[in-house]
Amino acid sequence: MTAEARPARRRRWWRRPMLWALVVVLALVAAAVGWAWNGASGYYTYEPGDALPVTASTGCTTSGGNPHLPGGGLCARLVVPADRVHPVAGKLLMVDVLVGQTTPWQYALARLGLLDTFQRAAELHSARDVLGGAPAGQFTCQGVQEMDQATTDAPVAALRRLGYSVKATYHGSQVFLVQAGSPALKGGVRCGDLIVAVDGRPTLTAGALVRAVESHAPGTVVTVTVHRSGSGGHTVTRRVQVRLGSRPGDPKAGFLGIATQDLPTYKLPFHVGIDVGDIGGPSAGLALTLGLLDALSNGHLTGGHTVAVTGTIASNGAVGPVGGVAQKTVAVERAGATLFLVPAAEVATARREARPGLKVEGVTSLAQALDDLRAIGGTIPRT
Q1: Is 356 exposed, middle or buried (0-12, 13-18, 19+ CB in 10 A)?
Q2: Which of 111, 276, 340, 374 is deepest in the core (most CB within 10 A)?
Q3: Domain boundary residue among 238, 264, 290?
Q4: pLDDT digits (tens, 9 = 90+) for 18-54
Q5: Is 30 in contact with 23 (CB distance < 8 Å)?
Q6: Residues 34, 39, 45: CA angle, nearest 5 degrees
Q7: In terms of domains, do 68 and 131 share one?
Q8: Which of 174, 279, 182 is nearest to 229 (CA)?
Q9: Whether 296 and 162 share a structural domain
Q10: Residue 19 forms beta bridges with which residues?
Q11: What is the pTM of this model?
């Protein structure tokens, strides 16, 4: 063997292991990316959103789809007659959560237990939990319908607390969720439809709709009459044929596979409008109610403090649970709130996330929220 041949053999000897090592590394990286990509597709990530003032101030104006303040910050706009508005001391904040499809990076960090290290309070939730069994395409529609309910019920709860008489007229059941693979989805019922009759018999409330459907045996084909938004914003009437399924837990009762809410119109003593822009979901209800009470009474509901609020509201003042309380707690801290009112069922979650300087109280009703505001020096309007 010549001297010239030996270096060539040594180069071949060390290059081959390095090449195989590179191949193995690339294969592992590809497998990891594929694992994270596939895993992320089944999840949504909750992240802290915005805490925005609820105000009747003329400084909160709407342009470009979202209300904003002169400095550019977002706000929730209350529209009431100018002669009924009082100057407000302190701030009332509503708070939202950013919800988006989980990225492969977020999924990998979560599985390694490091997501909170890079994104405080960020959490992964399964698509099933977020969508409630509805197709992903309904997510935006669901949020819009729920916020419509909140902006309808908040003025009623506030005005009734101020002693006004508010009467309701019911028009049907608003669909805010159609389950994937359900009889309703197969028959053509859509999120956003207003169901007004089953087999020609009026169903003007959600309860009436449930009773009408359950009175039929599974397998029965029923005609569901809906009012639906058409082109140009006009409402059109459609009659869709649905073969009923079996209600879970009661195989003898008919089942559509939808979630609905009452859609009443209320006769208010004066005009009240609410604009929250493109924010969806029901959790702003209590904050909007308190904001209206503050603007329409003495303007000292918060005692001059910055108070953040989350929770659904019913027209009778009942407060219901919401999602994303951990993320909302971070958002209200960043906004400088000193008190955070949350549904009682979720107070433990908020307190675990809260840092010193933010007091958290749980409530189940508008009356209880007012008691908490009185405790920090707020002036509560008389009924």
Answers
A1: exposed
A2: 340
A3: 264
A4: 776 776 677 776 666 677 678 788 899 999 999 999 9
A5: no
A6: 125
A7: yes
A8: 174
A9: yes
A10: none
A11: 0.86
